[in-house]
Amino acid sequence: LLGQILDHWFESEPLKATLATDAVIGAMASPHTPGSGYVLLHHVMGELEGRRGAWGYVAGGMGALSQAIAQAATARGAHIFAEKAVCHVLLGRDGEAQGVVLQDGTEVRSKLVLSNASPQITFLELIPQEKLPTEFVQRIRQVDTCSPVTKINVAVDRLPSFLAAPNARDGQPLPHHQCSIHLNCEGTQLLHQAFTEAAHGHPSSRPMIELCIPSALDPGLAPPGCHVVSLFTQYTPSLLADGQSWDEQARNAYADTVFDCIEDYAPGFKASVIGRDILTPPDLERIFGLPGGNIFHGGMSLDQLYFARPAPSYSGYRSPIPGLYLCGSGAHPGGGVMGAAGRNAAQVAIRDFRHL
């Protein structure tokens, strides 16, 4: 249990609760849920500029990272087809991958196919089910993709000023504006209560909020004096109680709850808002193809990790379809902007390619 780990090392309840947020982030779990300690470990995996476990902002926004990868690929001769949806994987006579077919009917032939789509999309939508082992299909269908995350992107006309650390007179960002700011984390019991509400189909009445202001470090993201605020919030169930849907009214009601909480810590925040974009779990699934809205393509619980990710006997990036590899968050070691799954999958695919 995460709670036991934190109790062993720390005394301060706010510190324990703030650390606990990284153990439940993206997970429909409480700090008291068995196995939650692993998710905390997962979030300090890797390093940034030599600092182990460190995180950072991407200059130019997260899209700039995708562009950097794209530029590296095209420099090596890759061709990138943006906005071209894949209809299905092209299979040969012996059931091996031979490329992909786009929705416009175009065939792209290849000896190898790597998919960083979720295991659900890759194997349940892009491959005929009769070409896959029955047990494998059943396992992919059973992957727990439950997600508590609602992402809210906010544009504001001034920097939030927190009661705990008021802004300087010149309105310039202070060190805490350049960090990850955790709200409603005074105690782990608060997080557990927020989880319990969502487990019963109700959005948390006092949500866990992780607030970042990337424009405090990267001014080019917003006009002078303005800022972009990224809110990673939970817990919000994919399916609401009593058959209610995440309609405009439900989305705005939850966002208002989040904004009311922020207002308690930073009076004037609500008045500074110019616009907001609310992405509930169904929105994250519809727009980005995240199953259940899960940012990890599947829960990071111990039964869905290591040799069991995405399925037993298929944790080595190869799939039941020869020449088809899984290289996204649904593969080992799981989600996060670290590239481990993609790098590992590429090495396996290169090794196989040499023998074709």
Secondary-structure map:
Blueprint: H1 2-9, H2 13-24, H3 36-42, E1 47-48, E2 51-52, H4 62-75, E3 86-91, E4 97-102, E5 107-109, E6 113-115, H5 119-124, H6 134-142, E7 150-156, E8 181-183, H7 188-199, E9 208-212, E10 227-234, H8 248-265, H9 269-272, E11 273-279, H10 281-288, E12 324-326, H11 340-353
Parallel strand pairs: 6-12
Antiparallel strand pairs: 1-2, 3-4, 4-5, 7-10, 7-11, 8-9, 9-10
Structure description:
β4 (97-102) and β5 form a beta hairpin. The mean pLDDT is 93. It contains eleven helices and twelve strands. It is globular. By secondary structure, it is of the alpha+beta class. The chain has two domains: 2-55 and 148-288, no CATH class; 83-144 and 296-354, no CATH class. The strands form four sheets. Strands 8-9-10-7-11 form a five-stranded antiparallel sheet. Strands 3-4-5 form a three-stranded antiparallel sheet, with no helix packed on it. A two-stranded antiparallel ribbon has the order 1-2. It has helices at 2-9, 13-24, 36-42, 62-75, 119-124, 134-142, 188-199, 248-265, 269-272, 281-288, 340-353; strands at 47-48, 51-52, 86-91, 97-102, 107-109, 113-115, 150-156, 181-183, 208-212, 227-234, 273-279, 324-326. Residues 34-178 form the Amine oxidase domain. GO terms for molecular function: oxidoreductase activity. Pfam families: Amino_oxidase (PF01593). Interacts with COX5B; this interaction may contribute to localize PYROXD2 to the inner face of the inner mitochondrial membrane.
